[in-house]
Each structure stands twice: as structure tokens, then as C-alpha cells.
Amino acid sequence: MFADLLIILACSLLVIALFRRLRLPPVLGYLCVGLIVGPTSMNWVHQSQDLPRLAELGVVFLLFTLGLEFSLARMLALRRTVFGLGSLQVLVCGAVLGGCLALFGLPLLTAVLLGLGLALSSTAIVGKELNSLGEIFSSHGQNAIGVLLFQDLVAVLLLTLVPAFAGTAGEQWYWALPITLSKTVLLFFGLLLASRWLLPRLFREVAEAHSPELFVMLALVIVLLTAWLTHLLGLSMALGAFLAGMLLGESHYRHQIEADIRPFRDILLGLFFVSVGMLIDLHLFVDQGWLILAATLGLLALKALLVSVLVRLRGENGETAWRTGLALAQAGEFFFALVALMRHTHLLDEQVGSLLLAAAFCSMALTPLLMRAAPSLASWLNRGPGRQTQIEEIANSSAQLSGHVVICGYGRVGQSIARFLQREQVVFVALDDDPVRVEEASAGKDNVHFGDSRRRDLLQAVGIERARLLVVAVDNADAALSIVEQVRHQCEHLPILVRTRDDSRLAELQAAGATEVVPEVLESSLMLASHALLLLGIGEQQVQAHMDEVRSSRYRLLHGFYHGGQTNLLESQGKPRQLLHAVSLSNGAHACGQNLSRLDLETLGVEVQAIRRAGAQLEASENPCLQEGDAVVLSGPLHAIEACESRLLGGRD
């Protein structure tokens, strides 16, 4: 087991790094790792009982973190989606797919069970992609999550009913069905009581102890205990984890819990995708490649069409319908378990099962790419004679605008800017990907449209070429960078103002073409510092001069900070954090007696903030000669600071 894990993690490290460079989804990388190391390829890793169990915990952690995003109130609001759209999707897709399989000569019972299995989608892939794309709370994202929750319940029922249909279980299906539903209701109310009375007290005690490891330990215990209890009841561990996360989603600790769980979730979820890739026989692609391709494309097209029709019948717009259909078009990880069980109970021929598994795997592998291309595909599919697409509607409403302001992201910051623009009677148009926010803002007569601001066609529709200013106020640094790059390619001279949380992506945004970048944390620090200086009696003009100097130097004075014992040295995106570090020059240090410029420290990736000597501060711009006892204050990522310290003290890089 240890050697298998080492091989999988080492291969994943190389493949995922390559996929990041190629800007391909990590899920595809993990699936490729499974194909490479599996028994039908390199045969480096053999299937064991331990690996699938460990990998299944990845789905458990994913569903738990998704549950944290959905409070009980939000889930109650989604009940029509979960039980209405969810049940229709399973029944309609199951009937059509089962009918198609029956036409190819499979026995009716086998065809119906396989049709229902293929009707279910991949919770792991769709959940992870929606999360990474920031589309969890979009209309199609909520549709997909609601349907996936109902599918998890159906998956449990199917696994319970297959032995009963095969005659190998001790009870009939009409007894198994109500028993499983009763267990689900019992689990829900048990977790509801625990979340109301027990868990808040536990988290309060742990929070008061100010111990990060205790908090992480409690979060892990809750996830694993919930999964174990659900498993004892014969239900899906992932479903139980989602219910636990959902009930904890109303607590004050949900953001901290999610941050603590994320590293475990991502690694274990990667193992899950690797284990799925290992199930596929590569020889099948050589022998029956065209048949697998036809089955894959048929499955994707049929499910996408059926789901989009069902969503459209509920009264939602065509683009949302198609994006929901494309998100749910693939087969799910549950289908692998269903086929294995049906083989074991002699309900399915092994050759047919292998062919269906290969098609299901291909549909899952294509899903990340499909979801990234979904905006363009949905717009194209939604076109028709006499029908306006969402893009055309936005373009028509913005056709008369010129010299206006475009705001990308209509959260608190975007709305604050809009209020000042309204006061000055400056026309603006805003884009946001939260459907509830767009609906509320539209009701208040604000000119706000729903959509992903990274889409070039959407930016063109709001008249970006005719705009006087672009304000990027999205709460995601990667999205902000993508928007700036898109707009700068279209409009070379348009001023672009970007809001960020901190200065971690400042240089990237400026290099991409941002005119001004305003980090919230640094601006709030400036405001506090200015008020402190004013309260100390320093003149208002002098204080304003200090503030102007810091802003004109792109916040150089505020770059980095002294890290503590509990500081995470990586940003949320995995990039090194900008730190502040002081190097004291001892007797015999290499830098003593040398001018600062001769050391050329900036080439190592740091900024020299100041040199402190005998209680006084020397500016780096003055190029002082360094002496024993000086403290050189550096700002930069950890690896660059370590390299600078080696050069200052020992003359080595």
C-alpha cells in the first residue's frame, strides 16, 4: 500500500504540474495517471481493497465542503430542484437510456438498471469543476448540485435493489425501498439535532483554546464520524457528509472548517480519480475504439439534450438549460460500482460491462473540458431563427451606450462604486455571475446583467470598445487577471481599475495591463495609518504627502509582512506569500563594507525596504555602505529571502 501511494503521488506531481502549464483541468491529469500506472498499462500499481476505500474519502470530503456552502434554508429553497428536477431527470434519462440498451439486445431488467445507472452523473467531477470555476451559485450550478443530491439518494437505492432483483438478497425490493428511505430520514434528523445542540458547543470550546491542530482534528473527526455512521446505516457516505456539511453551514466556523479540510479533500479526491482511471482496460480502446467513441458521444449528446429540455420546461432560459445539460451529461463514478455488482450477481455480461465502463470513463474525462467550453457551446446551441440569445439581448440594451463605465463584479465593492457613479450621473453597466444578486439589482433598476465577465463576447456585448473605464471588482484574483488580459487585447488604451484583496498578484495584474491596482488590505492599512498620524498631531498636508508617496510607489512600503508561527506561507492559490524579513549583519558578514547596489539583491526577487542602523532608518535609494550591526529589511517570497540572506551573510546565492 505504501509503495502504491508513493508511485501514485509521484506520478501525480509530475502530471498535474504539466497539466497546469498546459492550462488543462487537474481532474484530467489524475485520470491519466490512473491509466498510466494501472494494471492494463505500466502495471506499476495493482488494485487493492485499501486504495478504493481511501479514495472514496475524497468524495466524502468534497461533498462535506459543498454542504458547507449550502445552509439548511438554501437547501429548503432548492427542494423543487432536488426532488422535482432531480426525479424527472433520473426517470426520463433512465427510461430513454434503458430503452436504447434494450434495443441493442440486452435483457429488459438489465437494460433498465443500466439505464438508471447511466442517468446518474459524476458528483466528484461536476462538484469540483463548479467549485473551481466559481459557478456553484450560478443558476445552472444550483440546478446541477440539486440534481446530483437526488442522484446520490437514487444511487443508494439502486445498490440496495440490485441484489434483491438478482435474487441474492434476503429481502424483496418492495421492503428494501422503504427501509432505505427511512434510514435517510433518521440520519437527517439525527444530524440536525447534533448540529443544533452538540457541535456548536464543541467548536466553541476548541475555538477558545486557540489551537489550530485541535480545530483541524475536530473537523476531520466530524467528517469521518459522519461517513462511518452513514456507512453503518447502509447509505452513501458522501450523502451523509453533505448533510453534515449543510447543517454546519449555518455556523460561524464554516469558513475555517472549509479552509482546514481543503488540503485533505484535494489530495484524497485526486486519489479517487486515479482509482477510476485504473479501472479502464486500455486494450479495449485498440480493439473497439470506434464503438467506444460512438457510445461516449451518444451518451453525452442524449443526456445533455434531455436535461436541457427538462430545465427549459421549468421556465428557465435556454442558456441556463444547455449549461445544466452539459454539466450533467456524463456518467458517474457510481456506475462503476453498479456494473461491478451486476457482474457479481450475473445480471451483466463481462464484455458488455467493460465496453460500457470505457464509454462512461471517456464521458467523465471529457466533462472538465466540456464545462469550460459550456458558455460558448450554450450560446451556440441556444441560437435559432427568430430567437434572441442572452448575448444579443445585452448587446441591444447596451447599443446606445458610449463613454460609460463597465463594472465586472457587482458585490459590495462594485455596488459602492456604482452608487458614486449614480450620484455623478455617470452611466454604467455591470456584469455578475450570481443570479440572485443580478435579480435583486435589476429589481432596483440597476443596469446589471448575468454572465461570466471573462467571456470576450459578453464584454463586447456591453460595449467595452466604447467604454471610458473598466472596473474589475471580482473577488477572485485569477478571474481578475483573465478579465484584464481579455480586455487589454481588445482595447489598448482603456483605463482598467482592479480591486484585489492584497498585493500578492499586484505585479501580474500590472504586467497584464491594469492601469491601477487597489489592494483592499493595503488601502485599509493606509487609512488606519493616516488616522493614527493625524491623532498624533502630525499635519494633514504632511500625512497626505506620505499617503500619496506610498500610492505612487505602488504600495512598495507596505509589501510583505513579518510572518508568525501560524502564518500560512502560501496564498490560497498555492503561490508563495510576500513576507517581510530582517537580516542582521554580524561580524564578518560578506555584505559588511559594501555598498547596497553592488550586492544586486533585486535580481534575486526581493525588495529592500530599509536599512536600520543604531535606531535610525536609512533609505535603500541612498545606496548606503553596509556595516556590522545593520539590519537589512527585505520583502519577497520565502525562497528569494533565503537566497538574499545567504548572499548578505556568506556571499552565496
In short:
This protein is an alpha/beta fold and 653 residues long.
Describe the structure.
The chain has 653 residues and is of the alpha/beta class. It has three domains: 51-278 and 299-375, Na+/H+ antiporter like fold, CATH 1.20.1530.20; 390-514, NAD(P)-binding Rossmann-like Domain (Rossmann fold); 579-650, Alpha-Beta Plaits (2-Layer Sandwich). Helix content is 63%, strand content 7%. Helix 7 (123-133) runs parallel beside helix 17 (350-372) and helix 8 crosses helix 15 (318-327). The protein is globular and about 85 Å long.
Strand order of the largest sheet: 3-2-1-4-5-6
Class from helix and strand fractions: alpha/beta
- Uncertain residue ranges: 564-568
Radius of gyration: 29 Å
Sheet of most strands: 6 strands, parallel
Stated plainly, the CATH topology of the largest domain is called: Na+/H+ antiporter like fold
Which descriptors would you attach to this protein?
single chain, 653 residues, alpha/beta, Na+/H+ antiporter like fold, Rossmann fold, Alpha-Beta Plaits, 3 domains, six-stranded parallel beta sheet, four-stranded antiparallel beta sheet, globular
